[in-house]
Amino acid sequence: MKVDSKKIDGFLVKLLTRVGENLRSDSIQKMSVATKKNRNDLVTNFDKKTEKFINGEIKQAYPEATIVSEEGYGDLVKDMSGLVFFVDPIDGTMNFVKRGDNFASMIGVYIDGEPLIGAIIDVMDNEIYHGGKEIGLFVNDKKIDDPKNLPLVEGLVDVSAPMALSNRFSVQDVIKKSSGFRVYGSAGIIFGHLLTGKEVMYMSYLAPWDLAAGRVMCEAVGMSVVGIDDAPLNMLKSQVVIVGTQKVVSEALETLKTR
Ligand code: 2AM
Ligand code: CA
Ligand code: CA
Ligand code: CA
């Protein structure tokens, strides 16, 4: 299948621009919050409303596409053939509810299983990270250079709170070798930090919509995106993922105790 990646990129930027406007203007008073699996797992009326809006726009522009999304308005996607959109309407819902910043909206697009275009908006900073291998990487209109291939000792690392606190895979050994440890609580915000060289690694258990957009963009700037045992990524299931500079990811894989 042949697709125009530049056109899809333009579509995503326009769409996330509108999502950002809506989320910044929607009155916080009208927020209703519910728990999903546990008290740390929240969903709001804005997560649902935003996903409905994004998925509707995608279906209108790309009726042949299938959609994998978090809040239940997507399709039941069983394989990666054709055009597949991954949608996380609000990434960092806890930050959205508790702080009103450090949350994102993300869309990743794959064609026959291959990463094509990713787009992430840092909603409150109104910055859109977007692009892919073919067209390059941008923050809003500005092209960004590939981040430096720094080693662990020279960079900040981000590990999800549950993984860091439980010391899963002895991840604290990796953290101790770095310049320092951060926990931003939104995969989308952290992908922005990786793409602009502010952090050198992210490790977390990620669902498909957490990973899709960031993977496309990080790979496009030469970063490594791997599973914990260096196994190939499966975009249709949740898994532990390490993203970072090539040097840091190989150091992490050597350091982590995976069995
Ligand atoms: P969310 O806000 O879209 O749910 C918080 O640590 C980060 O991890 C956010 O990006 C959050 O996305 C994601 N996250 C929260 N719970 C998760 C889970 N059970 N599995 C995978 N990702 C999760
Ligand atoms: Ca969620
Ligand atoms: Ca998410
Ligand atoms: Ca979400």
TrEMBL record:
Binding site for Mg(2+) 1: E70, D88, D91, D210
Pfam families: Inositol_P (PF00459)
Keywords (A to Z) from UniProt: Hydrolase, Magnesium, Metal-binding
GO molecular function: inositol monophosphate 1-phosphatase activity; metal ion binding
Tagged with keyword Magnesium: yes
Record-listed Mg(2+) 2 binding positions: I90
CC cofactor: Mg(2+)
Record has Ribonucleoprotein as a keyword: no
InterPro entries in the record: Inositol_monoP_metal-BS, Inositol_monophosphatase-like
GO biological process: inositol metabolic process; signal transduction
Name under which the protein is recorded: Fructose-1 6-bisphosphatase
UniProt source species: Companilactobacillus kimchiensis
